[in-house]
């Protein structure tokens, strides 16, 4: 994968004299999911703003697509189109009196004609699940909806990279999970995603790579299980270990697990524990029913299949599938980490119904096949 953003020994001192970034080098590859983690004041926002040219380093070089950023109006406009930035506070990002006008702002400024702007806005609103709210004034929306308007405004310019500064701050746990699922969907659509946060628990299973930042310097940079796995490092950064890592370390220290594992999910943990049992519990596995909402487009058909499968748990993956379930008034047992949660239910002997869009069907099948192969289980996936 090619490098899309690179920092070469960048430093930044604010006009008041605070040195926020103290010599940092890193690179981000196309298609990665990166978490920039650190306590308040670590320099996360400053560093992110350097990635799309909003802040110019006092020294060192920032590169986008292997080219050093030139800080003139023309190249900055081009970089901001390629590297979209979703601010922490949506109220600061949303500026227009209606949702439509706000999302249209970027593509209109890029000089597209009226019809193209309309198409881009419609597509962006559909991607974030806000179709139908075009005429609403943003101030009437919930915090989660405002965040989605801000994201749609960026998506309408079709950037390669999406940067989110503390995307879940101010959202409730369900809203945070919905947002993380949306980020997964955008990643699945080919976007490179970078988020900053101090919520290790949230990004631990999500990120492919984590950069731990403290006092303007990189403390650790690795896959999350390694970057977050060192208790001294994590404590130094005023953060807490993800609970699964803490539990795994405790079980190993007590000799309950013979070697230290780094489980990323509850499913991993269950697998590790079961592999220690002399006689693993034998049970008939449940099945996972996958319903493609793009293939069959009627609410009635959806309701009929939910009833027919008699699944004990129901999940939806992706924005469109969640909307279809909402329209059909079908309550969801899970809307984030759906595949793993469905596998866990299947291991208990329960059936799960997953509604999803066409592009996700193969991903579900692949993930469950991989799990079956690794764990020598035989959970059945039935594509409806
Ligand atoms: P984080 O996003 O990790 O909370 P920031 O990048 O916002 O960290 O801040 C890094 C350091 O820079 C902090 O010491 C902060 O006080 C300082 N800082 C941030 N913004 C400004 C600003 N506009 N003017 C002066 N100092 C700032």
Q: How would you characterize this protein structure?
A:
With 384 residues, the protein is of the alpha/beta class. It is built from 16 helices and 14 strands. It has helices at 44-51, 73-82, 90-93, 99-109, 114-128, 143-155, 173-188, 200-203, 224-227, 231-236, 243-253, 266-276, 299-309, 319-327, 338-347, 358-375; strands at 3-13, 19-29, 33-37, 59-64, 67-68, 83-86, 161-165, 192-197, 209-214, 217-222, 287-292, 313-317, 352-356, 380-383. The strands form three sheets. A six-stranded mixed β-sheet has the order 6-7-8-3-9-10, with helices on both faces. It has a four-stranded antiparallel β-sheet with strand order 2-1-4-5, with helices on one face. Helix 4 (99-109) runs parallel beside helix 6. The chain is globular and about 65 Å long. The protein starts with a strand and ends with a strand.
């Amino acid at each position: 994968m090619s490098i899309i953003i690179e920092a070469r020994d960048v430093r930044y001192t604010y006009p008041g004299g605070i040195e926020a970034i103290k010599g940092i080098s890193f690179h981000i590859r196309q298609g990665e999911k990166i978490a920039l983690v650190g306590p308040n004041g670590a320099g996360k926002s400053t560093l992110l703003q350097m990635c799309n040219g909003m802040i110019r380093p006092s020294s060192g070089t920032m590169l986008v697509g292997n080219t050093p950023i030139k800080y003139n109006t023309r190249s900055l406009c081009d970089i901001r189109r390629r590297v979209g930035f979703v601010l922490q506070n949506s109220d600061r990002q949303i500026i227009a009196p209606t949702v439509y006008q706000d999302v249209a702002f970027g593509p209109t400024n890029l000089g597209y004609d009226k019809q193209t702007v309309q198409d881009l806005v419609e597509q962006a609103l559909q991607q974030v699940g806000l179709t139908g709210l075009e005429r609403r004034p943003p101030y009437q929306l919930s915090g989660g909806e405002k965040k989605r308007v801000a994201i749609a405004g960026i998506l309408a310019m079709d950037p390669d990279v999406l940067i989110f500064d503390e995307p879940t701050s101010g959202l409730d746990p369900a809203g945070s999970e919905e947002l993380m699922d949306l980020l997964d969907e955008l990643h699945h659509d080919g976007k490179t995603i970078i988020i900053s946060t101090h919520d290790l628990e949230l990004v631990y299973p999500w990120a492919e790579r984590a950069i731990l930042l403290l006092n303007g310097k990189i403390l650790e940079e690795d896959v999350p299980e390694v970057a977050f796995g060192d208790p001294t490092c994590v404590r130094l950064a005023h953060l807490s270990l993800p609970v699964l890592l803490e539990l795994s370390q405790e079980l190993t220290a007590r000799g309950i697990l013979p070697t230290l594992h780094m489980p990323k999910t509850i499913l991993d943990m269950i697998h590790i524990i079961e592999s220690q049992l002399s006689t693993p519990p034998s049970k008939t596995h449940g099945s996972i029913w996958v319903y493609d909402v793009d293939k069959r487009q009627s609410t009635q058909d959806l309701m009929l299949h939910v009833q027919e499968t008699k699944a004990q748990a129901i999940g939806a993956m992706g924005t469109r599938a969640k909307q279809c379930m909402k329209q059909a008034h079908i309550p969801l047992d899970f809307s984030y980490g759906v595949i793993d949660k469905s596998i866990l239910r299947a291991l208990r002997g329960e059936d799960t119904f997953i509604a999803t869009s066409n592009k996700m069907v193969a991903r579900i099948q692949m993930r469950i096949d991989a799990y079956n192969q690794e764990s020598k289980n035989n959970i059945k996936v039935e594509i409806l």
